[in-house]
Amino acid sequence: MDSCDLDYSYLLEKFSHGQIFDRNERLKQNAIDFINSCGLEGKARVSFILIDQLVMDYFADISRLKDFHNIEKANPTKVAGYLTYWTLKRKPIQLIVEPDDDLIKQYPNINFLNEFYSLEVLLSSAFNKNVYKLMDSEQTREWNIVLENLIYTFKYRIVTPQLLELFVLGLYSNPINPKIGIGNYSEKTL
To answer: What is the value of pTM for the model shown?
Structure first.
């Protein structure tokens, strides 16, 4: 059975129409803003049908999660994990032009727009992006390594909502001990 044929009406018993509508509209606007921020107007588009589908898939998973754990509200790590997972799965941003050599030179990751958009969804779901934390150059370098590895994971690895939830939880924490292996990666280690 095609997932588009599923009946999601039961979700209106668990979530208000406003909750579903607001999440849907926020993701649509976020996707449009993402395309515009990349300078890809006229080259990529947002599939509103796929946004609708990923929002319903997200709410269906959250509904099952709440029922299973007998909880009233999902925590922010679960929200970020499941929303990002379904964004990766549905891939709502679509190229509307064939990428030629010039476009690929200008945007080397053009074939991975949805993975980069999913990163945006994860970060905006898990963090208040209106509050910026000042980082020194070492912290910025470490943060960029984390994001590069996450994009690699989005591109080439199997991703689950639980993996994403754990990832967000890790980003929330501060290490209690010094990190091992941070520094010169060319050093020999056992």
So the answer is: 0.84
Higher pLDDT, 132 or 157: 157
Question: Could you tell me the residue range of the domain that residue 142 belongs to?
Answer: 3-172
CA distance 172 to 178: 16
**What is the C-alpha separation between 92 and 170, in angstroms, rounded?**
27
- Domain count within the chain: 1
Is residue 189 domain-resident?
no
For the segment 113-127, what is each residue's pLDDT rounded down to a tens digit? 999 999 999 998 888
Kindly state whether residue 188 falls inside one of the protein's structural domains.
Answer: no
